[in-house]
UniProtKB/TrEMBL annotation:
Signal peptide: none annotated. Pfam families: SAICAR_synt. It is an enzyme of class 6 (ligase). CDD domains: SAICAR_synt_Sc. The lineage of its organism: Bacteria, Bacillati, Actinomycetota, Actinomycetes, Micrococcales. The gene is purC. This is Phosphoribosylaminoimidazole-succinocarboxamide synthase. SUPFAM superfamilies: SAICAR synthase-like. It catalyses: 5-amino-1-(5-phospho-D-ribosyl)imidazole-4-carboxylate + L-aspartate + ATP = (2S)-2-[5-amino-1-(5-phospho-beta-D-ribosyl)imidazole-4-carboxamido]succinate + ADP + phosphate + 2 H(+).
Length: 304
């Protein structure tokens, strides 16, 4: 199991209750946990993970990029689905631009993945079986080929340090119930289709992405957590896109490449934690995240 560092911020009006690979969750002072909290504070740290490890190195401004992009996408998608943001709630100054105040949700225990291009674990599944999570695809497809129409490929949520497990729709229906599984599938593909069009207008290919959904107190299904960021999505430069090979991504590619290259001296299959990143890799990764933010939103970084 990977070790999650202690949260960076001690916030006077909030109590820390949980940390994930990237986000720290707080509830208002006086609440004992999620059950009696009327709101939660999600703070995106600058932590970065790779191969199921949280690295000791951080990527400056990464949390602000993830939060800013999520907020922008929540707004773009508001006519398709609601979200968990409490728009009039005040974010503490200590975590400005990297935090969201949200309504508590009952989360669905499945990650909802949409794939519009054949890459990553989907490509591996296709080469082995001719299908991706039960979605049979045409013969002869190659790496980075477009999948039309896009497909729904859910995954179970793993504990920190473990791998998510890709599942088919039948298994998702067993976990969620048929009605909710169908609703989440349809929402996932609707959101992906809209987002893929928006990204393409900005010169970005949205190859795949994962969403998380929950129910609010009224029973409505809403979009939660982060959405359409370099951590949850595979973004490619449309001008450089060429099917038949791997594509350069707006994400932690520099980190992965260095960790698996000869200079790191690290075996990703071992239980030994990865080494610290060289400053050059940190700077290149930061620049890639910021480029994704600026190209998608049309807004200069840093945020005022």
């Amino acid at each position: 199991m990977t070790t999650i560092p202690a949260p960076t911020y001690d916030l006077p009006e909030w109590t820390h209750v949980y940390s994930g690979k990237v986000r720290d969750i707080y509830v208002p002072k006086g609440a004992t946990g999620f059950a009696d909290a009327d709101r939660i504070l999600m703070v995106a740290s600058d932590r970065i993970s790779a191969y199921d490890h949280v690295l000791t190195s951080e990527i400056p401004d990464k949390g602000a990029v993830l939060t800013g992009l999520s907020m922008w996408w929540f707004d773009q998608l508001s006519d398709v689905i609601g979200n968990h943001i409490l728009p009039d709630a005040e974010v503490p100054a200590e975590v400005a631009h990297r935090a969201m105040v949200c309504t508590p949700l009952t989360m669905f225990p499945v990650e909802c993945v949409a794939r519009g291009y054949l890459t990553g674990s989907g490509l591996a599944d296709y080469r082995r079986t001719g299908a991706v999570c039960g979605n049979v695809l045409p013969e002869g497809m190659g790496e980075s080929d477009r999948i039309e129409p896009a497909i729904f490929t859910p995954a179970t949520k793993a504990e920190i340090g473990d791998h998510d497990e890709n599942i088919d729709f039948a298994r998702a229906s067993e976990i969620l119930g048929a009605e909710d599984a169908e609703a989440l599938r349809d929402l996932t593909l609707r959101i992906y289709t809209r987002a893929e069009e928006i990204a393409r207008e900005r010169g970005i290919v949205l190859a795949d992405t994962k969403f998380e959904f929950g129910r609010d107190a009224s029973g409505a299904i809403v979009l939660a957590d982060e959405v359409l960021t370099p951590d949850s999505s595979r973004f490619w430069d449309a001008a450089e896109y060429a099917p038949g090979k791997a594509q350069a991504s707006f994400d932690k590619q520099f980190v992965r490449d260095w960790l698996t290259g000869p200079d790191s001296g690290w075996d990703k299959n071992s239980d030994v934690a990865p080494p610290a990143l060289p400053q050059e890799i940190v700077e290149k990764t930061r620049a890639r995240y910021i480029e994704a933010f600026e190209r998608i939103t049309g807004t200069a970084f840093p945020l005022a």
